[in-house]
Amino acid sequence: MAEVAVIIPFRGYWSGVLPTLKALNAQTARSRMTIVLSIDGMEKPPPEITELVDVCVNGQQAGPASARNRGWRVADTPFILFTDSDCVPETVWAQRMVDKLKDEYQAVKGVYSSGGSRLIQRLAQVEFEERYRLMKRAGKIYLADTYSAGFRRDWLEKLDGFDESFPLPEHEDVDLSWRLTGAGGHIGFVPDARVAHIHRKSWAAYFRMKCRRGKWRIMLVRKFPARAVNDGYTPQTLKLQMLMSIPVVLSLFLIPYFPIVTICMLLFFLILSIPLLLTAVYTDPSTLLMVPFFALWRGMALITGAMQGLIGGAR
Fold first, then answer.
1. Distance between CA 272 and CA 48 in Å, rounded?
2. Burial (CB count within 10 angstroms: exposed 0-12, middle 13-18, buried 19+), residue 139
3. Which domain holds residue 292?
């Protein structure tokens, strides 16, 4: 009898989910696992897809939050794992996630193992590695993001799953995580439960994604104001980088008139980037020289999105 179900929400090209399903079928825990593909309002899947899943459910297109809820509710197992259709879990991923769920945790969080070979993808992976280092030291974890997450079924039922008013793949897992910890649940960090992923392939795509993140984070912080101070995941230096990004960019136009001001602003921003720089040293040294520019690009995107959320609302 299965003890764990893996839910994959899906909308896109069928070929895109094949690596995920093949990786799940190669799991060491496969004999105790149910693979559930939850389709978000598409046609019937082809045979090469259905032969790799145990359960296939479909419903009206309403976003990944709805698809995930539809998936876990049809799975009669005590443990529920989530990953995305563009992720490829390592063979021991499910086993390590379940082992941690059995260890007095109501939810667990795994990690990205890689993000692609392009410079922006490697820098994005350095960003994740900085967050993972922070979570290893944190006394409490507040996030189980669904590219590699697990929950006890009884707690999903207690919280009524994901909030389906989130129409996009954006912060619905943060919302569930913060509701879980607010209700007394505990999230375990599993750094050896790893999934490969392809991060955003261009600087423009990365900027748009971070802008959207900044916008939705404003909405969620309004709902959970205590998490504005500490969410156990966002480095405090990142918040300062966001606030400093626009003044730093503006100071560049003042170089002919106030060069000292510009130099001081750039040096201060460089100091704020030291934790990210140190992470790059240990994880991907070849990205080191681009880390400050990346931090500035990220800060600009996040503050732009945050201002949009403050002015016009995040929905």
1. 49
2. exposed
3. 202-315
